[in-house]
Each structure stands twice: as structure tokens, then as C-alpha cells.
Design brief:
Radius of gyration: 27 Å
CATH class of the largest domain: Alpha Beta
Structural class: alpha/beta
Strand content: 15-25%
Helix content: 25-40%
Largest sheet: 7 strands, mixed
Number of strands: 30
CATH topology of the largest domain: FAD/NAD(P)-binding domain
Distance between the termini: 42 Å
Number of helices: 24
Shape: globular
CATH architecture of the largest domain: 3-Layer(bba) Sandwich
Length: 740
């Protein structure tokens, strides 16, 4: 039985724009997102005081003639989401040269002032952009009119025809002789590609022209603000957005997509569910969509897209600085730093695939606008460079983490060379790779861009290359004809909805909402140590987990939202066999923690669980827990599990806190039914910190134990290094892995 007009698989911008547009037109929509937060690459995450922007540096255009503008106006985006104009397009720095590329009416004149001998070449470049845009505006929107005018197209749109058959590198080499000028005009190629000779000239000019004419923009509060708005827009019009739901199958009847089967992303013990609709929109990579289809549609789609070349990925280092970076001379929003002294356009591909120590990178200082990503006096920044999944394949987890740290240090040293003393103010950093993007988006090769925007793969050719293999299945994503980036996703979502408006046979459905069994009530709040609270919730139906695992807790109605998101990864204090679910946390002045403190009994939160691999390994060794602060939470259920298993081996808990009053569960840890149990609290206000001598004093031989480390990042790193230095095999060292 059908209940929806459209089921949308994925909540990236393409899916949300399609869903919001259909909802605006009165269609009943449900969005199923495999991640626990909506938005795809338009999301944010919280670290310390910083709201880290996942993917947005600057969105192009938004000026009066930008074709995105009427789409966003139609959906009321500008009424609730604020876009901040960045000061300039970007600033290029290399060893003996630097130049700022501006945007707006004076861009061309300022560039001519910097390169007076290249005036004719600059005018040719901007003239080509202007002619291309003029022809784009003249293109007929009616399909049949397009067909009728097809023989006249070479005369009506000669610039479109010409630029669609040329690559960017060849045109620039033929028309601009000054290599420095070419560098300036293309320094941000990483926004689109890793190779100018494999990038459609038409695509480059359209995208670059939008930045040059309309400028770059950042979403105040981060791109998550835009995603959240679109979610609210859908829900206010009777739709529903469910996160943490993984679509496994697209259901097909009579050569038509009629629904989907899905499961909980995290809780494998829940049953598979099916939903039915007039249409299905896939906001997902087409190779992934093919795996959801039955035969023969699976093979048909897979074979069609298999020859298409995938775009590159990105490496991002998220940075939190405890100062205003302008005080350190970081006076540009986006600074592009090229590593090679004699960098030429032909070097771009080799540079992208080259040594991390020389690879070009972009440094974004979000503090140049009122980004609302950090408290006053602090700044969020990012380092971004081209990346490939192959860089990270075949590595063990330890090797992967070590390589990430090595690469981070290379880039940080180069940043320090450009802006001396900047690392003195670095309070937090975290590295995301192509592997990270693949983990969270499921995109093949971890690319956020979809297919390469080459001459062979540019729209409208891509429209044929990526068409759906069956009726009522549509694509709206970076993998669809309009391509990657925020603009491409917005166009894709709207064009897909517009196409569906006349192609789908719509039915009328009564309003309804799926019950989310993961939404549970708060039963109790108890203070268990200084500024430390224990939360007791109803246990979600069918939730099964192992001691030591964690959940993501989402507040359904947070009181406070500034500089934060309403989600946190939290270890489950309760034992898997308990009837309730418990979490413990230190309170702070973050919006999330303030909202938790303000929760009333009976209010709800949504639980995404279980996650993580910090569980008992049972390798028949002595078991040692090294915990600090609130990191003790997963240790409680692990001890209870060992007791239930009647574990006879030695169990030792080292628990570090500043004072006894700040030690959560101190009294619980003093008592255990384990036969061979030792609890050793360490209060650093009056005692030495945990060190090798202290461990040896109580364990004697360190190499015959199995270690479980949990606490702050600095604590876990220090303990791991200590154990490795004492020759403890790495395979017997386990760290809490949620990084919260």
C-alpha cells in the first residue's frame, strides 16, 4: 500500500532541495538518511568550543542573475538563512609572488592593474564568461522548443557550443601566455577538479564566472543551518526526515520504482521495513543506487555508469584557534598556498598527486566574516588539499592514524611558515581524509564531487549517461547531470523535482507520520559528582549493544542552539541487560550541555546506537582499564559484564581525576564482585599523574596485560605512547574510538 508521493534516499542538499520543492507543491515526502544528521556535506560537528564546518568554503554567486537565487527564493531560504559575502574570492601565495583575486564589478580592472601587459588576455577571458552567461539566459526552457531550434543552435549559442567541446587547460594555454596570470585565474581549481586538462571549459567558466561576478558566500552558523532549514521546511508541510535509516533495496513492480526497504543504520537487531510511494528520488551515488536495485536494473545501471570517471577527493584539517587570526596577519578569507616555485598550469595534476610536503593547499579563515562558528576571540579555520582514497587504502588502523598525524604536521609546519606563531594559538585540530568522506557519505572513492566534469561527461551528455533505468526513479545529487558542489546539488534537486512534477502520476494521501521507536523519554537526572550529571532514559525498543559501545544522543527540542548542534556521542553507562539507558556527562556552558541541564523529566531525545568497537576482547590476559574523568563511563558496564561472566583473571582499574569530588562513580568502583579486582584512583590535585613507574608498581610486568584506555584525547594519546614505549604490543592496547 502506497503512503507517500515520494521517498527520497539521502539528505544531502540535492535530496533536501528536491524534497522541499515537492513538499511546497503539496506532495507528501519522506526522506531516509543513513547518517545520524541531515545535510550530507552541508553539515557541522562540535569540537571543544568550535563548530567545525564540514564542507563549505564559499558558495558562489547569489547575485540577482544567479539561477540559484529564484530556487532559494521559492523555498523561502533567504527569509531564515543568512548568507555572508566573503571579502574577496581568494588570495594566492607562492614563494616569490602573491596576488588577490577579487569579485564584483571591479574585478577585471583590478586584475588588469596587477597584470597591465596582459590586458587583452584578461578582457578576452572575462568577455568569454559574459558571452557564455548571456547565451545560457537565452536557452529555451521548453523541451520541444529546444528540439525545434536544434539545427540553429550553432548560430544561437556559439559560445556554449565552443566551450562545451574544449578543456580548460588547452584554452588557457592558447589564450593566456603569462603563467602567473593563469595561476591567479585557476588557483582554486581544487573546487572542481585535480586536472585543468580534464575539466570542461564551459563548466569552469560558468562556475568561476559565478564567483567572479557574484562573489563567494558563507552560510552564517555554517552550512548545517541551511540543511536544518530545509528539514524544517519539509516537516512543516507534512513531510518527514528520518536519519539513521539505511535503504537496502529499491522496490520495483512493472518496470517502475514503487518503494524502498530499509533498516536502522546502527541497530542490526531491528527488522527491515518497507515503504511505498509514487516515486523514488536517489540522493546518492549511482554506483551505490545500482546495488539497491533488483536485476536486470542493477546490471543495466551499473554497466551504464561504470565507464564514467570519478572526481578526486579532499583532505581537510579542521582547526580551532584561541585567538582572532587577523591579529596574526591572516587578513584574507581564503588563502591558496602553492608549493612549487615554478608552478605552471601543466603542473596541477602532478601537484595534486604529489608529495604532501609540496602539495598546494587552501587555508580558510572563517573569522574574516561573522561565521558564528566560534566564541568571540576564537577562530575556526581549515586546511584543504586534493586527496585520493588510494592514499589511505591497505593501512591498519594504527598506520592510518599515524599517517594522518604525519600529514597534518607537514601542513601545519607549512602554515606556520606562512604565518609565524600561528601554531602557538592552535587549540584543536582533526584530520578528515578521502576515507572519512567515504565513511560518512558512502561515496565511491570518497569523492564529494561525483563524476569528473570533463568534456565527455559534462551536461547535457551526462544527462544521457546517468538516466534512470526504470520509470519513477530519479537522481538528485552531485552524481546527476548538474554535477558536484553546493550549486550543482541545488540545481540537481530543483531540476529533478521540476521534471517529476509532470512525469509522475501523483495520488492523494492522508497525512501520517512514522513512529520513531528511537525517540525516548527522559526518566531521571541525578548529579553523581561535581558538575557531573547522570541521565536515565527509556530504552529504545529492540536496542541491543555490547558493554563499552556508545550512542549518539540527539535532543529533540534543545533550549539553546548557539555555536552548537543538538547531538553528542556518549558512552552508554547502563549495562546491555538493563531496562533503561543511561549516559553521564560533565556540564558546561555549551548550548548542548545547557539544553541537557534544562531538560524536564518526560522530554524526549532520539538515540542512534550502537556504535564503536571499544568492547571486551577476551584474550585471556590480565585486564587493565586506564580512565580519566568522565571517560570512566564505558568501564562500568564492562566491569559488570566481566562479573556476569565470572571472569577469574586479574582486573585493575586506574582512574585519574583532579579530586575525589570530581570522580564520577567513585563509590561504585570501590565495590565489585569480581574475584581478583583492584581499584586505584589517582587524584592529581594531591598525587602524581599516571606514569610508567606507577603502573609498574602495581602491575609489575606491563607486557602481559590487555589495556583499555578511555578519556580525553590527550590522555588516551599519552597512555598509548607510554605503553608502546614500555614495549607493550600494539594489539593489546584498545582505545575508546568515538572521539567525542
Amino acid at each position: 500500500m502506497k503512503n507517500y508521493n515520494s521517498i527520497i534516499i539521502g539528505s544531502g542538499l540535492g535530496g533536501l532541495i528536491a524534497g522541499a520543492t515537492l513538499a511546497l507543491w503539496g506532495k507528501k515526502v519522506i526522506v531516509l538518511e543513513q547518517h545520524y544528521i541531515a545535510g550530507g556535506c552541508a553539515t557541522a560537528f562540535k569540537r571543544k568550543d568550535y563548530l567545525m564546518e564540514v564542507g563549505l568554503h564559499e558558495i558562489d554567486g547569489l547575485h540577482e542573475t544567479d539561477p540559484k537565487r529564484p530556487i532559494l527564493e521559492l523555498l523561502g531560504v533567504f527569509d531564515e538563512v543568512e548568507f555572508l559575502k566573503v571579502p574577496e574570492f581568494y588570495h594566492l601565495k607562492k614563494q616569490n609572488f602573491q596576488c588577490t583575486l577579487h569579485h564584483g564589478a571591479e574585478t577585471k580592472e583590478k586584475l588588469i592593474a596587477d597584470f597591465p601587459d596582459s590586458k587583452a588576455e584578461i578582457e578576452r577571458f572575462f568577455g568569454l564568461i559574459n558571452r557564455l552567461y548571456a547565451e545560457m539566459r537565452r536557452l529555451p526552457r521548453n523541451k520541444w522548443l529546444n528540439i525545434l531550434l536544434y539545427p540553429l543552435m550553432p548560430f544561437l549559442i556559439p559560445t556554449i557550443i565552443k566551450t562545451s567541446t574544449m578543456n580548460t587547460g588547452d584554452w588557457l594555454d592558447a589564450n593566456i601566455k603569462n603563467e602567473a596570470l593563469k595561476n591567479v585565474l585557476t588557483a582554486n581549481l581544487g573546487y572542481y577538479t585535480d586536472d585543468p586538462y580534464n575539466l570542461s571549459l564551459m563548466y569552469f567558466l560558468m562556475a568561476q564566472g559565478s564567483y567572479l561576478n557574484g562573489g563567494g558566500n558563507f552560510v552564517k552558523g555554517g552550512s548545517q543551518s541551511l540543511s536544518n532549514y530545509l528539514v524544517r521546511f519539509i516537516e512543516k508541510r507534512g513531510g518527514q526526515v528520518l536519519t539513521g535509516k539505511f535503504v537496502e533495496e529499491i522496490l520495483v513492480e512493472n518496470n517502475q520504482a514503487v518503494g524502498v526497504s530499509y533498516r536502522d543504520t546502527f541497530n542490526s537487531s531491528t527488522a527491515k521495513q518497507s515503504l511505498y510511494a509514487d516515486s523514488v528520488v536517489a540522493n546518492a551515488a549511482q554506483p551505490m543506487v545500482a546495488q539497491m536495485l533488483p536485476e536486470p536494473y542493477r546490471s543495466k545501471l551499473a554497466q551504464k555508469v561504470a565507464p564514467l570517471e570519478l572526481a578526486c577527493s579532499l583532505l581537510t584539517i579542521y582547526l580551532g584557534f584561541n585567538t582572532d587570526l587577523k591579529k596574526l596577519g591572516v587578513n584574507h578569507y581564503s588563502t591558496i598556498i602553492q608549493g612549487q616555485k615554478d608552478y605552471k598550469l601543466k603542473d596541477v595534476k602532478a601537484d595534486s598527486q604529489g608529495d604532501w610536503a609540496q602539495k598546494s593547499f587552501t587555508f580558510v579563515n572563517y573569522g574574516m566574516v561573522d561565521a558564528q562558528l566560534a566564541p568571540e576571540g576564537k577562530t575556526v579555520g581549515v586546511i584543504c588539499a586534493i586527496d585520493y582514497l588510494k592514499e589511505w587504502e591497505g593501512l591498519s588502523e594504527a598506520e592510518y592514524q599515524q599517517k594522518k598525524e604525519r600529514v597534518a604536521q607537514l601542513f601545519l609546519a607549512r602554515l606556520e611558515a606562512e604565518f609565524p606563531t600561528i601554531l602557538d594559538y592552535l587549540e584543536y585540530y582533526e584530520v578528515a581524509t578521502a576515507k572519512t568522506i567515504k565513511r560518512y557519505t558512502l561515496n565511491p572513492q570518497g569523492t564529494p564531487y561525483g563524476y569528473v566534469q570533463s568534456v565527455k561527461q559534462i551536461y547535457p551528455k551526462r544527462d544521457k549517461l546517468t538516466t534512470s533505468p526504470l520509470k519513477n526513479l530519479y537522481f538528485a545529487s552531485a552524481w546527476a547531470p548538474s554535477g558536484g558542489g553546493y550549486s550543482g546539488a541545488i540545481y540537481s534537486g530543483f531540476m529533478t523535482a521540476n521534471k517529476m512534477k509532470t512525469q509522475v502520476k501523483w495520488r492523494d494521501y492522508a497525512p501520517s507520520t512514522l513512529t520513531d521507536e528511537r525517540c525516548v523519554k527522559l526518566l531521571a537526572k541525578d548529579f553523581i559528582a561535581d558538575n557531573t550529571i547522570l541521565l536515565t532514559f527509556e530504552k529504545p525498543k529492540d536496542l541491543e549493544y555490547k558493554a563499552g559501545q556508545y550512542a549518539v544522543l540527539r535532543l529533540d527540542n534543545p533550549r539553546y542552539t548557539a555555536l552548537d548542534i543538538p547531538l553528542r556521542p556518549l558512552s552508554m553507562v547502563s549495562h546491555p541487560k538493563d531496562d533503561t539507558l543511561q549516559f553521564a556527562m560533565h556540564l558546561s556552558d555549551s548550548s548542548f550541555k545547557k539544553s541537557v541541564a534544562a531538560m524536564a523529566i518526560g522530554e524526549t531525545a532520539t538515540i542512534f546506537a550502537p556504535m564503536g568497537n571499544f568492547t571486551l576482547k577476551a584474550k585471556n590476559k590480565r585486564i587493565v582499564f586506564l580512565a580519566s574523568g568522565i571517560g570512566i563511563t564505558p568501564v562500568l558496564p564492562m566491569l559488570k559484564t566481566l562479573a556476569q561472566q565470572q571472569f577469574a583473571g586479574e582486573v585493575v582499574v586506574f582512574y585519574s581525576n583532579k579530586t575525589k569530588a570530581s570522580a564520577a562513580f567513585h563509590s561504585d568502583l570501590q565495590h565489585s564482585t569480581l574475584a581478583n579486582y583492584t581499584y586505584l584512583p589517582v587524584f592529581t590535585a594531591t598525587q602524581k599523574r599516571l606514569n610508567a613507574d606507577f603502573l609498574k608498581e602495581h602491575l609489575h610486568i606491563l607486557t602481559d596485560c590487555e589495556y583499555y584506555i578511555v578519556g580525553t584525547n590527550s590522555f588516551t594519546k599519552a597512555m598509548q605512547e607510554l605503553l608502546l614505549n614500555e614495549k607493550v604490543p600494539a594489539e593489546f592496547i584498545f582505545k575508546d574510538d568515538f572521539g567525542g
